[in-house]
Amino acid sequence: MSPDVTDRPRLLDAHDRLILAELARNARLPSQTIANRIGLSRSAVTLRIQRMEQDGTISGYTLKRVPPPRDFISILMIQRRDRLRGSDVLSFLRATAEVRGCWVLSGELDILAIVRAATQERVGEIWRNLARLSGARDTVTAMALETVVALD
Read out DSSP for 57-105? Predict the structure, then answer.
């Protein structure tokens, strides 16, 4: 007795392979977008996807979590030359995207800034740019070794 035709795996044609390639790049693409890219109608793409799901060619859509990049957190403690006239330092800190928090303090060091950058080199660049400002007298920098309580 010969096997039933439905028991054989279905061969994928060129359009099926194009659909699979689009879904492999982005499994959330709308059928219309795939249809526009491969030259079929939306309903034809939808039917082909349903058929490939039924025959096991497409067995699921999965989310692959990518770990977030490791940020370098640095604490900058800054002493300005003149607290009343050191606005260039505050302006620089406000304009720097990596500055996640900034506080004016009492005491010898009068500004505390938290910097979160993608690389140590970027932390260094921020520090060098800050040190060039006329309002900055001294800067103490510390790199965070471990996060115990995270900022928002």
Answer: SS------PPPPPPPEEEEEEEEES-TTT-HHHHHHHHH-TTEEEEEE-
Cα 30 vs. chain centroid, distance in angstroms?
A: 23
pTM for the predicted model, two decimal places = 0.53
pLDDT tens, 114-126?
A: 999 888 899 999 9
All residues at 6 or more sequence positions from 27 whose CB lies less than 8 Å from its CB, including other chains? 61, 62
Which residue, chain included where needed, has tokens 């800190």? 93
User: What is the token pair recorded at 87?
Assistant: 């606005």
Token couple for 149: 């309580």
The SS3 call for residue 122 is helix
Task: Give the amino acid at 121.
Answer: E
